[in-house]
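Interim report to the steering committee. The following record documents the input for Sec-independent protein translocase protein TatA (91 residues).
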Amino acid sequence: MGGFSLIHWLIVGLFILLLFGGNRFSSMMGDVAKGLKSFKQGMADDEDEQRRKAEEQRRLGSHDRPIDVTPNPRAADPVAPPPPPSDPTAR
């Protein structure tokens, strides 16, 4: 009861073929194929652009970023001594 069988798919395909006609259906499938090809090419172009930018960034290295020379105030503070050990007999 769940899905379509092979005969159902054949009837649906025949109905679509009769509805749109052989020539029009063929041209629609050609347009779909062109759209998929264009989409894949666009995705590949985007990946190439990202790869090119990453390579350029790697080539430039850290020369294009300014060096941070502000002093770190926590580094100048002395480290606090650890607390004295607790004496169990002091209670």
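The radius of gyration is 35 Å. The committee is asked to note this result when reviewing the revised timeline.
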